[in-house]
Amino acid sequence: MKLGGGIDVRVNRKVDIRLVEFDYNPIFTGDYNTTGAPFSISQKGKTAHNFTIGFGIVIH
Fold first, then answer.
1. What's the whole-model pTM score?
2. Alpha-carbon gap, residue 18 to 60, rounded angstroms
3. Per-residue pLDDT tens for 4-49?
4. Reduced to 3 states, what is the DSSP secondary structure of residue 26?
5. d(CA 26, CA 43)
6. Which residue has the higher pLDDT, 60 or 43?
7. d(Cα 8, Cα 15) in Å, to the nearest integer?
8. In a 3-state reduction of DSSP, which class is residue 11?
9. Chain mean position to CA 50
10. How far apart are CA 3 and CA 49, in angstroms?
11. Which of 32, 46, 54, 59 is least buried, going by the fewest C-beta atoms within 10 A?
12. Which residues 6+ apart lie within 8 Å of 22 measured at CB?
Protein backbone atom coordinates (compact mmCIF):
# COMPACT_ATOMS: atom_id res chain seq x y z
CA MET A 1 0.00 0.00 0.00
CA LYS A 2 1.42 3.37 -1.03
CA LEU A 3 -0.34 6.70 -0.58
CA GLY A 4 0.73 10.03 -2.04
CA GLY A 5 0.13 12.99 -4.25
CA GLY A 6 1.77 15.88 -5.99
CA ILE A 7 1.39 19.27 -7.63
CA ASP A 8 1.79 19.58 -11.41
CA VAL A 9 1.99 22.79 -13.45
CA ARG A 10 1.03 22.56 -17.13
CA VAL A 11 3.72 23.81 -19.52
CA ASN A 12 1.87 22.87 -22.71
CA ARG A 13 -0.57 20.22 -23.91
CA LYS A 14 1.99 17.38 -23.69
CA VAL A 15 4.30 18.41 -20.80
CA ASP A 16 3.80 19.22 -17.10
CA ILE A 17 6.36 20.12 -14.46
CA ARG A 18 5.88 18.23 -11.18
CA LEU A 19 6.81 20.81 -8.53
CA VAL A 20 6.57 18.41 -5.61
CA GLU A 21 5.50 14.82 -5.00
CA PHE A 22 5.07 13.26 -1.55
CA ASP A 23 4.51 9.54 -0.90
CA TYR A 24 3.98 7.46 2.25
CA ASN A 25 4.89 3.78 1.97
CA PRO A 26 4.46 1.73 5.15
CA ILE A 27 6.12 -1.70 5.25
CA PHE A 28 4.50 -4.26 7.56
CA THR A 29 6.44 -7.31 8.73
CA GLY A 30 4.84 -10.21 10.52
CA ASP A 31 6.02 -12.13 13.55
CA TYR A 32 9.18 -14.18 13.05
CA ASN A 33 9.66 -17.43 14.95
CA THR A 34 12.29 -20.14 14.50
CA THR A 35 12.94 -23.24 16.51
CA GLY A 36 16.07 -25.24 16.23
CA ALA A 37 18.79 -26.76 18.31
CA PRO A 38 20.16 -25.41 20.59
CA PHE A 39 17.98 -22.23 20.76
CA SER A 40 14.93 -20.51 19.25
CA ILE A 41 14.40 -16.95 18.00
CA SER A 42 11.19 -14.95 18.35
CA GLN A 43 10.68 -11.41 17.02
CA LYS A 44 7.49 -9.35 17.11
CA GLY A 45 6.19 -7.79 13.90
CA LYS A 46 7.23 -4.25 13.04
CA THR A 47 6.12 -1.41 10.80
CA ALA A 48 8.58 0.78 8.88
CA HIS A 49 7.25 4.24 7.97
CA ASN A 50 8.89 5.26 4.68
CA PHE A 51 8.44 8.68 3.06
CA THR A 52 9.61 9.94 -0.33
CA ILE A 53 9.70 13.45 -1.76
CA GLY A 54 10.33 14.09 -5.44
CA PHE A 55 9.96 16.35 -8.46
CA GLY A 56 10.12 15.85 -12.20
CA ILE A 57 8.67 16.17 -15.68
CA VAL A 58 5.39 14.54 -16.76
CA ILE A 59 5.00 13.71 -20.45
CA HIS A 60 1.45 13.00 -21.70
1. 0.64
2. 13
3. 999 999 999 999 999 999 999 999 888 777 777 677 777 788 889 9
4. strand
5. 19
6. 60
7. 10
8. coil
9. 5
10. 12
11. 59
12. 4, 5, 6, 51, 52, 53
